[in-house]
Amino acid sequence: MHPPRRLFMLFFAMSLSWGSAPLAAHADDGDAAGLVSGLMTRALDTIKSTNLTEAERAERLNALLQDNCDIPRITHNVLGRYWTLASPEEQKSFSALFARWVVKTYSFGLREIAGTTMKVIGTRDDGVDGADVQSAIVTQSGATTPVEWRLHRDAGKLRVVDIEVSGVSLARAQHEEFTSIIQRSGGNVGALNKELDARLHADSLAAAGR
Q: Which is nearest to 161 in space by CA: 35, 169, 193?
């Protein structure tokens, strides 16, 4: 059974919210375990902050997403074979919409992480390509969830490309959802872009009505 969607919301949000310092500034020494440990600490500090409005939080998350995640690699993996079938305009549109969709979707789960304890258990280096870091999230009730961070090294810097929660890949889960939308539209990536744009627009209207 796949972990509930809420868990994906929480753990991907953690990867985007480790405070004001970008991941790349901590990644030059190749210490993947130290990077993730620091990342999780900064995540909690950001989550507990009472000095940010929701708009400021979303703006910061978007900046962190662009700085600290390998967006081209993530979007390519999420679309799979449909990436090469999409036009350059569709690829560019999807990359921009996907970044906004991630921030909108996963920022809602941030505060729910505040009562957890996070720890790094081990790391597995992939040579020049990157590293995998195993961690655990422990709730106040003592429940433990394994979380594996997949980091890719680009120009000597490590960046987040995927997170596995209880053995289930976030990128793979998103790939399944998005390809289902594309397949229902006869293989049209433009239809997925319209769907994401509609979701973002609906979320903006809902937020404005609050």
A: 169
Please tell me the total count of domains within the chain.
1
Backbone angles phi, psi at 25, to 5 degrees: -70, -20
CATH of the domain at 180: 3.10.450.710
Question: Mind listing the pLDDT tens digit for each residue in 11-68?
Answer: 555 554 433 333 333 444 457 887 777 666 666 666 667 787 767 766 766 666 666 6
Considering Cα of 147, then 115, then 118, then 51, what sign does the dihedral take?
A: positive
Residue type, 5: R
Are 114 and 125 in contact by the 8 Å Cβ rule? The answer is no
The residue with greater pLDDT, 53 or 131, is: 131
What pLDDT score was predicted for residue 9? 53
| H or E segment and range at residue 19 | none
Range of the domain at 150: 5-203
